[in-house]
Specification:
Elements lengths: L2 H50 L3 H14 L6 H14 L3 H12 L8 H16 L8 E6 L4 H10 L7 E5 L8 H7 L2 H13 L3 E6 L17 E6 L4 E8 L4 H12 L6 E6 L13 H11 L5 H6 L6 E2 L6 E2 L2 H27 L4 E6 L1 H5 L1 H8 L3 H6 L4 E5 L7 E4 L5 E4 L7 H10 L5 E6 L17 E5 L5
Parallel strand pairs: 1-2, 1-14, 2-3, 3-6, 6-9, 9-10, 10-13, 13-14
Antiparallel strand pairs: 4-5, 7-8, 11-12
Helix pairs in contact: 1-2, 2-3, 3-4, 4-5, 9-12
């Protein structure tokens, strides 16, 4: 063959070999890049989930690890934004400000930039203010109060201006539901929250979950109603309150509360103003779930009339209760907390900027068995849950009560007269006094000699709902 032909063949084969080598090298590169992207996304998802379940310390740890491990990741700005928010939640405002500034000052636009700039401004204002001695002070008032009344209240209590306002949604399920919707419309709520925010207050909304069904538009609201045992007639009937066990009602609660997403709220507080008492919580669904879990044929009417299974004296009425009652009381408390935690987890996704608080009944801490029966509340379990704030009312001395023993006999005793004892107990258990807010009577706000001495850093919220 002629020389030019051989030369052409050699060049062609060399080019093919070179190209085939390039193609073979490119395959692993693409696979490695995809694996790296998947790993980064998984790591960031883990950190975000920790934040959404309010485990902020774990979120900080995971996000810092992400930024060290993947400094050039395309997800680094998103990671910094979550890290800044996690630092803000833990109270490390200077670190939060540093990361928010980084996101805000990037030259290229990103979806977090506007929010980061807003938070930088707010944090700079907050950090520039001189540190005040003591804890926060605030007011608990009702959503039913007129704006003028709230203005007068703030004017009278200048000490709390610019602090916390806990705006409570009253429970009026016994009234006409249509009237309730008109009185407590979303528009009225928005107006009240925006008005208080304009006065410089950090606004929290307090809701009793068992009562919010009053705002539902559904026609068959009775399907969500709880059931209550009537000792006089010995029968069960509809309760005026709603049962958290129904999935439809849980969905309604999440959707209704999610409407608050664009309001200038600081947080939501789940109040236990209408607790599930000894004779409540017997919705057919709850009874069925309990019977299935414990493998018993459970009938509330038979339970309150059956004294064959180890009687125990009730605190107030002396009604004989069988042993299955204690299983029911414990299960009811655990289920209530589980459902509330599930609601919080769902709401953190829709309302990620809010804090979530919960109220505890003072008697639950002084006498856990009493709390279990009368409030469906296990205070230790609640304190372990990932809430940002714990509110507890300061109550006067409790009367002498009868505590049942395991053998069925009763012991008479008097609770401690120390009004702040439950608060101290909660602070000692949590180890974080700043997470605890004590709710005190509004009448004693200016009478300092009557104000109980609280642990340092515990917040003081003065209840003005019943104060003229």
């Amino acid at each position: 063959m002629p020389f030019p032909y051989w030369r052409f063949m050699v060049i062609t084969l060399a080019a093919l070999l070179l190209l085939s080598g390039c193609f073979r090298a490119a395959g692993p590169d693409v696979g490695v890049r995809a694996l790296r992207d998947q790993t980064e996304k998984h790591s960031l998802d883990q950190a975000e989930r920790a934040f959404l379940r309010a485990d902020y310390s774990t979120a900080v740890l995971l996000l810092n690890r992400f930024l060290r491990t993947h400094p050039q990741s395309s997800l680094s700005l998103e990671a910094r934004w979550w890290l800044a928010r996690a630092h803000q939640k833990t109270g490390n405002l200077s670190s939060a400000l540093e990361h928010f500034r980084f996101v805000a000052d990037t030259r290229t636009w990103n979806v977090y930039q506007a929010d980061a700039r807003f938070r930088v401004t707010k944090l700079e204002e907050q950090l520039s203010q001189p540190l005040t001695s003591g804890s926060i002070r605030g007011i608990l008032t009702s959503l039913g109060a007129l704006p003028g009344d709230v203005d007068a209240m703030i004017a009278t209590n200048r000490e709390v201006e610019g602090s916390v306002i806990l705006l409570d949604v009253p429970c009026r399920v016994d009234g006409n539901s249509q009237d309730n919707r008109e009185l407590f419309s979303i528009a009225a709520m928005r107006s009240a929250v925006q008005h208080l925010h304009s006065r410089g207050a950090a606004v929290y909304l307090g809701v009793t979950l068992r009562c919010l069904g009053q705002f539902a538009q559904e026609r068959k609201l009775d399907d969500w109603k709880d059931w209550i045992y009537d000792p006089q007639s010995g029968t069960v009937r509809h309760s005026p309150y709603y049962s958290l066990h129904f999935w439809g009602y849980q969905k309604f609660l999440v959707d209704w509360l999610a409407q608050l997403r664009d309001l200038p709220l600081r947080g939501l507080v789940f109040r236990n103003e209408m607790p599930v008492g000894q004779y409540e919580g017997f919705s057919p669904l709850a009874v069925q779930l309990f019977a299935r879990e414990f493998g018993v044929d459970f009938d509330p009417v038979r339970m309150f009339h059956d004294d064959r299974a180890g009687p125990a004296n009730d605190f107030n009425s002396g009604v004989q209760l069988p042993a299955v009652f204690w299983k029911w009381a414990g299960w009811k408390s655990r289920e209530r907390l589980r459902i509330v935690q599930s609601l919080v987890q769902a709401l953190r996704v829709r309302l990620p900027h809010l804090e979530f608080g919960v109220t505890l009944k003072s008697p639950s801490l002084t006498d856990p068995m009493r709390g279990l029966i009368h409030f469906a509340e296990d205070w230790v379990a609640v304190a372990r849950a990932p809430f940002d704030r714990f509110l507890i009312a300061i109550e006067g001395p409790n009367p002498t009560i009868v505590r049942p023993t395991a053998q069925g006999s009763s012991t008479v005793f008097s609770e401690s007269n120390d009004e702040v004892g439950p608060v101290v107990k909660l602070v000692q258990y949590l180890g974080k006094p700043e997470k605890v807010w004590a709710v005190l009577s509004g009448r004693g706000m200016h009478t300092r000699t009557q104000t109980p001495i609280l642990p340092k850093e515990v917040g003081r919220i003065y209840d003005h709902r019943g104060v003229p």
